[in-house]
Every structure is written in structure tokens, then in C-alpha cells.
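Hi all, posting the design record for the shared folder.

TITLE: backbone redesign
STEP: 1 of 1
STRUCTURE INPUT:
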């Protein structure tokens, strides 16, 4: 005789292997706590990795500049991009007889506009001579494209104070290397065929030593390139475009944070002087 199936009773949440409302609330609270404590740590780790990447990038570029100077027996410059009169430089490019192709003029003028938004972050390797130049003659040449530091990093702004030769030599006797502005000189910008513009630089001679144009003689030999954590903001014009006539607003956060990369004047070798940012 067939047995009648037994009607089972409802199982509790624990018997079904599910969760009660209280258990769900506890899990959500734990997840919220973990998120609140781990996100700042992850952000700090990301920022630390970015800063380490910026340090390594500058060290590598300085090493490359020195190596090129040694290999090719010529002075090689690491040029840094300060705040600059973009509109005037762009107009000079558009009217320059040295750039004969109108399309090339427009390309270089566009490059100036783009670089205007990379002030205090862009740099390039440059030489006043090319391979095969005769003695006494020089063909300027950029040895790299204009590159930028990782987002959120910039070259420390006090290194960009313009001083003429006499002022700079006087300051070099009293200001520590970390705070001393870089030397400046005239270079074609932003390409080798462009009109000249004054730019700060670090240079290496054919023996790999620190080099200065116009026979500058610092009281304290050596140079320091510094990077900081911060942002650069550019005012907009009435059309919503970046205003090429206005100086940018710079925010350093936290204030006075910096990493100093010191270059030995005799060997040209660079090392991190202050490896951490607050």
C-alpha cells in the first residue's frame, strides 16, 4: 500500500543555511568598516608609488643626459618648462622665417599651446650641437620629445626663479643647493628650429660633469632638481579655453613637500637626497 507523503514543516533560516536580518546587518557593518579603513591606505600606497615613479623618472632622465654627453662628447641639457608667455612665443613661431613650411609652423604653434598646460611638469633633453658638426659650428637638436612627470607631481617652483649671472652667483654663496634656483639660458623652444626662449636647465659636459653656460661659477658646486606633490590650474577665457596670457595657479599639498635629487658637480651622478614626502 502506497504511503502518503509527509508534509514537511518550514525550516528556520539557520536550518536552510541562509542569513537572518541581524546577520546581514553585521556583515554589512563589517564591510563598511573595512572599506573605511582600507581605502585611505590604498590611496596612500598609490600616492607613494606615484612619487617613487616620479623620482625614478627624473633620476633616469639625468642619467641618460649624462650618458649621452659622455658618448657623443658634447654638452647635453635637461631643459625644464617654467611659466612662459605662450601667446608671444606662438606668434613668434607663426612668423618665424626659420620654419618655412606653413604646416610645420601650425604644428609647432599647437605644440606650444599644449605645453602651456604642462608648465612646471614638462622637460626635454637638448644639445646645441649635432653629430658631424664642424668646430665652431653647431646645429641645435632636441634629443627627446617634451615629456611630463606623473600626474599630481611637479618640479618644485622655487627652482624656477630667474636670476641673471651676477645675481645667481651671489645667491649661490648663501642659499643651500636644495633652495638655489636653477641657471637659465636661451634655447630654441619648443623645437630646434623655433625662436629662442629663456629656460632653466641642468647640463652635463663631455666628461659627464655639471656644465654652466656663460661661464657661471657657483660658490657651492652641484645642482639639485626637486619634485613636489601638487597641481597646476589654468584660468579660462570667455570662450572656455585656457587663457594663454594668464599665469597658472599652483597648489602644493601638503605645503613644502618635496623630494630633492642632488647631482654631484664632478661626477654628474644623481641621487635622492630626501627620499620621502610628508
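Okay, here is what came back for every position:
SEQUENCE:
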Amino acid at each position: 500500500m502506497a504511503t502518503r507523503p509527509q508534509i514537511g514543516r518550514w525550516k528556520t533560516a539557520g536550518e536552510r543555511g541562509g542569513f537572518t536580518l541581524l546577520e546581514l546587518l553585521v556583515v554589512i557593518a563589517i564591510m563598511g568598516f573595512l572599506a573605511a579603513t582600507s581605502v585611505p591606505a590604498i590611496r596612500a600606497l598609490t600616492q607613494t608609488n606615484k612619487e617613487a615613479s616620479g623620482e625614478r623618472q627624473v633620476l633616469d632622465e639625468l642619467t641618460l643626459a649624462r650618458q649621452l654627453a659622455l658618448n657623443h662628447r658634447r654638452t647635453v641639457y635637461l631643459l625644464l618648462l617654467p611659466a612662459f608667455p605662450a601667446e608671444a612665443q606662438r606668434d613668434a613661431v607663426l612668423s618665424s622665417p626659420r620654419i618655412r613650411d606653413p604646416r610645420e609652423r601650425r604644428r609647432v604653434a599647437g605644440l606650444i599651446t599644449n605645453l602651456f598646460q604642462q608648465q612646471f611638469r614638462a622637460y626635454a633633453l637638448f644639445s646645441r650641437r649635432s653629430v658631424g658638426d664642424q668646430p665652431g659650428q653647431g646645429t641645435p637638436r632636441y634629443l627627446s620629445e617634451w615629456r611630463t612627470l606623473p600626474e599630481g607631481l611637479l618640479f618644485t617652483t622655487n627652482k624656477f626663479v630667474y636670476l641673471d649671472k651676477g645675481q645667481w652667483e651671489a645667491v649661490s654663496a648663501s642659499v643651500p643647493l636644495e633652495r638655489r634656483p636653477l641657471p637659465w639660458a636661451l634655447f630654441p623652444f619648443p623645437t630646434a628650429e623655433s625662436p629662442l626662449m629663456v629656460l632653466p636647465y641642468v647640463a652635463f659636459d663631455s666628461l659627464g660633469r655639471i656644465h654652466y653656460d656663460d661661464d657661471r661659477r657657483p660658490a657651492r658646486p652641484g645642482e639639485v632638481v626637486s619634485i613636489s606633490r601638487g597641481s597646476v590650474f589654468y584660468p579660462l577665457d570667455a570662450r572656455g579655453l585656457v587663457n594663454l596670457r594668464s599665469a597658472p595657479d599652483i597648489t602644493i599639498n601638503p605645503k613644502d613637500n618635496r623630494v630633492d635629487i642632488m647631482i654631484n658637480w664632478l661626477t654628474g651622478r644623481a641621487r635622492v637626497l630626501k627620499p620621502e614626502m610628508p
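COMMENT: Helices lie at 13-16, 21-72, 86-94, 102-116, 165-172.
Let me know if anyone wants the other runs.
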